[in-house]
Each structure stands twice: as C-alpha cells, then as structure tokens.
UniProtKB/TrEMBL annotation:
Domain of life assignment: Bacteria
Pfam families in the record: YjbR
Protein name per Swiss-Prot or TrEMBL: MmcQ/YjbR family DNA-binding protein
Organism annotation: Amantichitinum ursilacus
C-alpha cells in the first residue's frame, strides 16, 4: 500500500522536535532546529527529502523520482507523489533525512531537542 500525502505529512510532523511552516507560499516545510528535512508541495503533491550522496543516483534512477529543484546539488530528491516509492523505503528515507539534518546542527542546539 502506498503512503498517502496525509500519512507523509503526519510521519514528518511526528519526528522528535519537528516543526512545520509554509515557505514559498506553496510548500509545507518540516524542520528540525530551523533546518529543513522534508518538503510537501501543497499544489503539486510532490515531496522532497535529503538523502546520502551515495544513494542519490540510485534513487533518482527510479520512475517518479528526480533531483529536487534548487536542492538537488545538496542531495535532495523530489518524488512526484509519496507513492513513487514503497512505504517502508519512504519512511526510512524520511527518518534518515531527519537524522542527516539533525546531526549537522550545533551541539548546543542538539542537546535542547527531544
């Protein structure tokens, strides 16, 4: 079963210390410590997440997955819809994106997060 947009949004929001806001008028952005880890396109239904450099090419070879506009050079991928990849892989990638961003935060800030 494919992850719905609502499930994607709920999963992102459920990450410890995650915040949500609207950026660029049409994107719901999920952040940890003011740094983005996931994006949901309110108009398009597309989603963007950060991935490891060594997974970037593998993932962007899949149908419905491409380098994220403006963020691809930082190893962000865009999915036409959350259903573009299997649920378990998408959940793993969201959590990994969260941890990739969280671990780059200053230590003092990381200590204040749940």
């Amino acid at each position: 079963m494919a992850m719905t947009a609502e499930q994607f949004r709920a999963f992102c929001a459920a990450q410890p210390g995650a915040t949500t806001d609207i950026k660029w008028q049409t994107n719901e952005v999920y952040s940890i410590g003011a740094k983005m880890f996931a994006i949901y396109g309110l108009n398009s239904g597309s989603v963007c997440i950060k991935v490891e450099p060594d997974r970037f090419l593998e993932l962007t070879d899949r149908p419905g997955v491409r380098p994220a506009p403006y963020l691809g050079r930082y190893y962000w991928i865009a999915l036409d819809t959350p259903a573009a990849i299997p649920d378990d892989l998408l959940a793993e990638l969201i959590q990994h994106s969260y941890f990739l961003v969280r671990r780059k935060l200053p230590a003092a800030l990381r200590r204040t997060l749940p």
